[in-house]
Amino acid sequence: xxxxxxxxxxxxxxxxxxxxxxxxxxxxxxxxxxxxxxxxxxxxxxxxxxxxxxxxxxxxxxxxxxxxxxxxxxxxxxxxxxxxxxxxxxxxxx
Length: 94
Known about the structure:
By secondary structure, this protein is an all-alpha fold. The chain has helices at residues 4-35, 75-93. The protein contains 2 helices and no strands.
């Protein structure tokens, strides 16, 4: 299984290569515009993507870490407190 850092590095490199190809294409278009009788007065089309959203599915198979905190929960106390809160909420709403 590939590491997330390796995958993100790959995506970053692909984005850089895509930008490079877009810039190279812009240069070719600029040369065509320069040779054209009317287009030589126009700006070469170029665009930027201010925001790109990617949904990247990941699967976590293992986590190497020690728990920082050990929260202890008294289940009886928790159930009692939650039931009391429910009673109060029901009483307020009739």
